[in-house]
Structures are given as structure tokens and as C-alpha cells.
Write a structure and sequence with these properties.
about 250 residues, TIM Barrel, 13 helices, 8 strands, binds 2-phosphoglycolic acid
């Protein structure tokens, strides 16, 4: 059975005091027994959060693929590992859009994360124009082919995939369950073609984009949706508590 995962991407939000307080609250939530929970705080607070966290795993929102060197302002996967980080986000659309991260660079980041034993959460997803011209399946497939599908099956099994349609991120315009399920089923079928059915069945594919307490239950009930990568709704413990609660996952299943 594949892991059910709820991950909070805090982006560039919260003061240090607020981040520590939220981390403490998240660790005290009533989390479903089979649900893995990750938080991705701003890098500066990640070690504080790691020190506080018991039930919840902690990751970084980004890292550089090289281990060390003259890359002012960057932090490496190797350094994340040294600092005890569990995971890293790779290929979030905000990194792709605002920092010009392309599929080739994301491939290097993925390789580096795996080399250092950091669990990569690889994000993919199409912009609105691609959704509207109906080429979204081939667009996302290409993202996976250019950044992910060079991995061996053993490496790939450590990767969590997150489908995040860009038009749904931070907009309040969630993908419908039909739209999410169509893409998630397609992603699982491509993984199956590349790595075999058994690996495809074990792959966790998260949905991200305006996922919140009012729509999570329906999204998480989709056959191929294995959880969520949550932005806005991860910043309030009360909202996040609904997403990680056992009941949100089981009532419709
Ligand atoms: P959102 O962000 O939940 O605020 O739409 C999701 C994400 O960017 O991972």
C-alpha cells in the first residue's frame, strides 16, 4: 500500500516565533495513524522546527544540486542532510517561474537529493494556458520525462510526486476531483510504463493547489490522489488539523 501524505509548504511566511509556535501546534494535532505529515518551513527556521518535531517530518523548500562551493545565498542537499532534514521540495512552480528553474536543473537537484538520502517531493503541473488548450497531459508528462524518468526504479521509489496545476495555486480555484483524478491516473500510468505496475502502485502522488478543509475530503477520496501539498491552509493549525485527521481520509473511501 502506498503512503498517504499531507505536506505543508509554508513558503516565505511567518516570523521565527510564529513558525516555532505553529510547529508545536502541528506536532500536537490528532494525526491519522497511517498518515505521514511533513512541513516545509522557511529554511532559516527549519532546524528549529526539526528540533521541536516528534510526529512530523521536516523538509526544505529548495536546495542547490552542488554540495559545496561559491554559490552565494544557496544551501545544498548535503547541508540539508547534515542539518537533519528529511525531505526537499523540487520543482515547485514558484521556483520554476520566479527563479527560472528548468527541467534540466531540476533533474540535477533530484539526483543530488537522492545521493544524500533526502526524500524529494517533485512538483509538476501546467499553467492556465496549457490547461485551456488541452495539452496539459503531454506538458506534465514532458516535465517527468525530462527531470525524473532517468532514475532507476530503486531511486524512483524514494520520490514523492506532487501534481500542482499552477492555475490552482493560491487562487482558491481548486482542480475538480475529475480534473485531479484524470491527471493523477495519467501520471500513475506513465510511471507504470516506465517502472512497472508494482512501482506505480507504490508511488504517492499528492495534489496541490487551493486544497483546504472544505475540499480535501473529496480530493483525497479520489483513487489516485494520495494526499496533498498544502500552501495557505497549512499556515493555520486549525485548517491543517482537518487535512491530517483520520476522518478526512476515510469517510468517502
Ligand atoms: P496553496 O499552495 O495551497 O496555497 O494553493 C499550494 C502550493 O503551492 O504548494
Amino acid at each position: 500500500m502506498r503512503s498517504k501524505i499531507v505536506a505543508g509548504n509554508w513558503k516565505m511566511n511567518l516570523s521565527q516565533t510564529e513558525a516555532k509556535a505553529l510547529c508545536k501546534e502541528v506536532n500536537k494535532l490528532n494525526i491519522g495513524s497511517e498518515i505521514e505529515v511533513y512541513i516545509f518551513p522557511p529554511m532559516l527556521y527549519a532546524s528549529d522546527c526539526k528540533a521541536i518535531s516528534t510526529r512530523v517530518k521536516v523538509g526544505a523548500q529548495n536546495a542547490h544540486p552542488k554540495d559545496q562551493g561559491a554559490f552565494t545565498g544557496e544551501v545544498s542537499m548535503w547541508q540539508l542532510k547534515e542539518a537533519g532534514m528529511d525531505a526537499v521540495l523540487i520543482g515547485h512552480s514558484e521556483r520554476r517561474e520566479y527563479f527560472q528553474e528548468d527541467n534540466a536543473l531540476l533533474k540535477q537537484k533530484l539526483d543530488s537529493a537522492l545521493a544524500h538520502g533526502i526524500r524529494p517531493f517533485f512538483c509538476c503541473g501546467e499553467p492556465l494556458g496549457i490547461r485551456q488548450d488541452n495539452s496539459f497531459l503531454s506538458y506534465v508528462k514532458n516535465q517527468l520525462e525530462e527531470s525524473v524518468f532517468h532514475l532507476s526504479a530503486a531511486e524512483f521509489e524514494k520520490v514523492v510526486l506532487a501534481y500542482e496545476p499552477i492555475w490552482a495555486i493560491g487562487t482558491g480555484q481548486t482542480a475538480s476531483t475529475e480534473q485531479a483524478e484524470e491527471m493523477h491516473a495519467a501520471i500513475r500510468s506513465w510511471v507504470g510504463e516506465k517502472y512497472g505496475k508494482e512501482t506505480a502502485e507504490k508511488t504517492s502522488i499528492l495534489y496541490g493547489g487551493s486544497c483546504n478543509p472544505s475540499n480535501a475530503q473529496a480530493l483525497f477520496a479520489c483513487e489516485n490522489v494520495d494526499g496533498g501539498l498544502i500552501g495557505g491552509a497549512s499556515l493555520k493549525a486549525a485548517d491543517f488539523s482537518v487535512l491530517v485527521a483520520e476522518g478526512t481520509w476515510t469517510i468517502l473511501n
